[in-house]
Amino acid sequence: MKLNISFPATVCEKLIEVDDERKLHTFYEKYMTTEDAAVALGEEWKGYVVQISGGSDKQGFPMKQGVLTHGRGCLLLCKEYSCYRPMRTRERKHKSVGGCIVDAVSVFSTW
């Protein structure tokens, strides 16, 4: 899983790839906007607290806040919602989005 860890105060961003499943297991079953200690990623992250803010699965479907599932769900989206940009006014469309719970299918997470 690739992790994009950013610190907005200093505009610093770091992309790391974690291959060890045991390190990531502590973040599974967590919701978006959940804060957790980053010590599970290694000793260099000791003392840091990370907040899960998004991500996508292996096929590229984005995680969406409010979809309380592990996998994907199909929603009727319009202009007011993220994950869809209509071409016409008042246009709505069914789109697949990922749930807001981190699991083993997630490939890329933003913290």
Automatic annotation (TrEMBL):
One of the record's GO cellular component terms: ribosome
Q: Which GO terms describe its biological process?
A: translation
Q: Which UniProt keywords apply?
A: Ribonucleoprotein, Ribosomal protein
Q: Which domain of life is it from?
A: Eukaryota
Report whether Transcription regulation shows up as a keyword of the record.
Answer: no
This chain belongs to which protein, by name?
Answer: Small ribosomal subunit protein eS6
Concerning its family, UniProt says: Belongs to the eukaryotic ribosomal protein eS6 family.
Q: Which GO terms describe its molecular function?
A: structural constituent of ribosome
Organism encoding this protein: Ursus maritimus (Polar bear)
